Amino acid sequence: MPQPLMELFPTSLRHVLEQLPAFVMESLEEIRIRENRPLEISYGSRFSFVREDGTLTDEFRAAYVPSKEQCRALLERVTNHSVYAVEEELRRGYVTVPGGHRIGLAGRTVLDKGLVSHLRDIAGFNVRMARARIGFGAQVLPGLLDFKSRTIRHTLIVSPPQQGKTTLIRDIARCISSGEWCHPGALDWGSRKVGIVDERSEIAASERGVPTFDLGPRCDVLDACPKAEGIMMMLRSLSPEVIVVDEIGRPEDAEALNEAIHAGVRVLATAHASDLSDVFARPVLAKLAADGVFGNYVLLSRVGGKVEHRIVSAEEAVQETSRRYSRTIGATPRDAPWGTALPVASVVTPSPALVTVKARPMPAIRSPDLTAARGNDDD
Question: Which of these, 77, 173, 194, 159, lies nearest to 125 by C-alpha position?
C-alpha cells in the first residue's frame, strides 16, 4: 500500500493494516472500515476479515472492530480537517485522495428539495486502491485499431464495478499518447493527442493539475471536471484526437459524446454493466448504440484472479442481444467458482428489434503521410 495512503489511517488502525501478509498487500483492492463492525478487505477475487494482529479470518466475530473515534479521525484526515471543503464530493458519496484512491462514504443523507445535499453521521468507508498496470492495454488495444484512419475506433469498455475498467483505459490512453500501438501493422504510426476528462480524479490522479500516473507525453487532463462539460471544453480549446472518459450514463454525457464524434474525435469510454444486454437496457447507452456511436465493445470479466476481455463489434453486439436466452438477474459474485450461476430469477427475452444500429461512416481524421517522419503527424 502506498505510504501516503497508509498515513491517512489513525495510528492504531494503521498498525493493524501494516501487519497484513505481503501477498495480500500486493493485490489489495479495497479496505472497508465500518464503525463498530468488523474490518474487511478485498484482494484479488477474495475477501476476508482482519484480526488485530493483521492475520486473515473468515469468521467476522474474530475480526478487529474500528471504533467511533477511529472513524471520526479517519474522516478528518480524508477531508483534510475541513468537511465543508469537500462538500461537493460528500454530495456524491466519495472523496478522492492523492494517488487517485477513491474513498466511498456511507452515512445519513441530508436532502434539499428531494435531492441529496450532502452526507452526515459518516460511519462507513470503502478505500479503493488505484494502481497503474503498465502493459495492461497492450492486450486489448490491437483489437480496437482503425487501420484506415491510423487511430482507434470509438470504443465502450463494459463490466461490473471493480473489474479493471479504469486501469485499462488509463493504460490505453498512455499507449495512444506514446504511439505504442502494440500491433505490427502500426509500427510507423505516430502518437495521438489524448484528452482525459477525469471527473473523479481516478484516471490521472492529478495533484495540483499534474497527473501522477504515466499517461504518455501527449496527454491533457481536465481534473475533477464533469464529463459532459469537460468534453465540450476539450473540443473548444485543446484539440484532442482521442477523448477518454470514465463511467458514462447520463443524457448530457451522450450529447457531449455525439458532439465529439461529429467533430472528428475518437472516443474511449467506460460504463457499468454486467453484459451487453445490460448496456442495451440502459436508456442512455441504448440510444448511443442505436445511433451507431460505438464501433467496438470490450467486455471485462474475472475468472479467478485473472481479468479476461472480449471485443465485440457493434453488429455482433446487436446479434447477441437479439437472441432468445435465459439469464440470471444481476452479476455472478466474483468469488463464485468459474461457470457457477446464481438461481435463475426470471427469463429475459429481448426483442430483436429493440436496438437497430445505424450505419455511420467514420469521420475523416488527418493522418500523417506514410513517408513523413514519426512525430510530425500533427503539423
Answer: 77
CA dihedral of residues 214, 215, 216, 219 (deg, nearest 10): -140
- In CATH, the architecture of 3-128 is 2-Layer Sandwich (3.30)
For the chain, list residues with pLDDT below 70: 85, 304-305, 322-379
- Residue 46 pairs with which residues in a beta bridge? 43
Second-level CATH architecture of 137-322 = 3-Layer(aba) Sandwich (3.40)
In angstroms, the CA 59 to CA 56 distance is: 9
Q: For residue 337, count other CB atoms closer than 10 A to its CB.
A: 7
Using CB atoms within 10 A of its CB, is residue 328 exposed (0-12), middle (13-18) or buried (19+)?
Answer: middle
Work out the burial of residue 35: count CB atoms within 10 Å of its CB; fewer than 13 is exposed, 13-18 middle, 19 or more buried.
Answer: buried
Computed on alpha carbons and rounded to an integer, the radius of gyration of the chain in Å comes to 22
- Strands (E) across 248-371 are located at 266-272, 296-303, 306-313
Whose cell is 471504533? That residue is 67
Domain ranges in the chain are 3-128, 137-322
pLDDT at 374: 42
> Nine-digit cell at 270?
467506460
C-alpha cell at position 346:
426470471
Q: What is the pLDDT of residues 318-366, one digit of tens each?
A: 788 766 444 444 455 555 554 544 443 333 333 433 445 454 555 554 4
| Cβ pair 365, 189 in contact under 8 A | no
**Torsions phi, psi of 82, nearest 5?**
-145, 95
